[in-house]
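Give me structure tokens for this 307-residue protein.
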Amino acid sequence: MKKFIRNSLLFCIMGIVFFYPLIYIKQILSFSELKKLKIALLKSDNDKCVIFFGSSVNKHTAFNDTDKRSIAEMLDSLLTTQKVVGISHKAYQADIYLEYVRYISKSEKKPIIIIPINLRSFSPSWDLNPGYQFTKEKYLLNGYPSIVNFKYKVIKETEYNNFPIYYQNKLVGKLQDYLRIPKEYDRLYEMRKYFIFFYMQQIKSNHRKLKSLLKICELGKENSLRIVMYITPIDYTNAEQLKIEGFRQHLCNSVNIIKSTIASYEIELLDLSLMLDSTYFDYNISPNEHLNFNGRREIAKVLKSIM
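Here you go.
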């Protein structure tokens, strides 16, 4: 029995020694965003390098766009003395940005870091989506492979599907009721429903996205990193045309909660939430922050003005 236990322990140790590094290497090689960041930091001349983080908003292009450059690429073309490197991925948000900033803070480089704050990422549709947690990437950014999740919150499908959705403090359904657009639908009705679903859920002071933004600010201060944050534009004009009661006020309240959360830190926070009207956006029924060429260009121009 003792021999069996000893052999079992030896087998486990050998597995850790030989297979753990192999798993790590395999996962690292598939993490293209981290590879891009490493190269950028290696070439970085501190504030001459701008790391531009983003979600799909950074890269999305409209069908009729003749200029398909991302916001980061447009900003890079506008700056003469700085190099902009875009690190973006579909559904990136504050939690994963935090791990990237933590990774940068452990290096000796001091690039300028741009962090977008997408108000929709606070909604349960994004915040609690099991596919948007980026657990593997978070582990890799901290220096070890994702094998067993012992650190980050696990969100079950049942928790996600059954999360309550409110409108003006009234329960209007569960999250699963909003996940799909029916085959036969009223376009304006569905669009109105999604504006409420995405942008009118209350942001509480203990929201984990707020905690992540706060920690990013702390890391910036502790490591003398210049961090610029901007709240992405929302298609508020469409929401108001749909006569969604209290939409603009709720939007302003959400922005004020974010501002007050990080107010004690010297962070440059640009509120672009009401900057663009509907002509700058590109989506069908389900509203989002995707922009056409003109919209991406406007964002790049504003960011250029503070570089």
